[in-house]
Design a protein that fits this description.
87 residues, alpha+beta, Ribosomal Protein S5, domain 2, four-stranded mixed beta sheet
């Protein structure tokens, strides 16, 4: 099962997350990857770690989102996936 959060607008990002049982696999693309790619990856990794998520596939398509937007979208995707799995 895959869930999604976010928009394809400037200053936002799309987060796709599935519940596969493989080790966490992240794919991140960004319009500002050359400048902030490592920082973006760190924010995502820290957020996933804080949420205790260690498995699944995470795909992020960023268009200059700020840290609080990145965290909010990742948290929303994780919460949506947890709700879908419970049903």
């Amino acid at each position: 099962m895959e869930v999604c959060s976010g928009n394809r607008k400037r200053g936002d990002l799309i987060v796709r997350l599935d519940d596969r049982e493989n080790p966490l696999n992240m794919s991140i693309t960004s319009s500002v990857e050359s400048l902030f790619g490592e920082h973006l990856k760190g924010v995502v990794e820290d957020t996933m770690k804080a949420l205790g998520i260690t498995t699944g596939n995470l795909i992020i398509e960023d268009d200059q989102a700020l840290d609080f937007v990145i965290k909010a979208r990742v948290i929303a995707a994780v919460q949506r996936l947890k709700m879908e799995v419970q049903v």
